[in-house]
Write a structure and sequence with these properties.
This protein has 112 residues and is of the alpha+beta class. It has three helices and five strands; from the N terminus they run H-E-E-E-H-E-H-E. It is globular, with a radius of gyration of 13 Å. The N and C termini lie far apart (31 Å). The structure holds adenosine monophosphate.
Length: 112
């Protein structure tokens, strides 16, 4: 399967790495929507939050722990930030590999 984020995780497509461990890779969004816009992806290919299984519980918990760490490192933990995961066409998901958008650095509006 040819997956953009799998290829980024493998280093076959360049990215601006923010964080990496054995389970998670995080990098700057190429089209940032705010001063801080980081994408966090599990290295394992999971299509979306809709295809998570109980076997992924620990991974998901870890993904949120990494998000908290990145929020601290990028200076938005205290001012606040948003974690978003888009699911499917109506959810606005353009890359079918589960990811969290970590967005902050300004007061965010709620739009759809
Ligand atoms: P979504 O629309 O929720 O699936 O989010 C996909 C995100 O990936 C978008 O915000 C894009 O700007 C971002 N994106 C697409 N290609 C790249 C890339 N090569 N490097 C970094 N971010 C990317």
């Amino acid at each position: 399967m040819d997956c953009l984020f799998c290829n980024i995780v493998k280093g076959e497509i360049p990215s601006a790495k923010v964080y990496e461990d054995e389970l998670v890779y995080a990098f700057k969004d190429i089209a940032p929507q705010a001063p801080v816009h980081v994408l966090l992806v599990p290295k394992k290919h999971i299509t979306s939050a809709q295809t998570l299984t109980p076997a992924d519980d620990a991974l998901l918990c870890h993904l949120f722990a990494v998000a908290r760490h990145i929020a601290e490192e990028t200076g938005v933990a205290d001012t606040g930030y948003r974690l978003i995961t888009n699911i499917g066409p109506d959810g606005g998901q353009s890359v079918p590999h589960l990811h969290l958008h970590l967005i902050g650095g300004k007061a965010l509006k709620w739009e759809n």
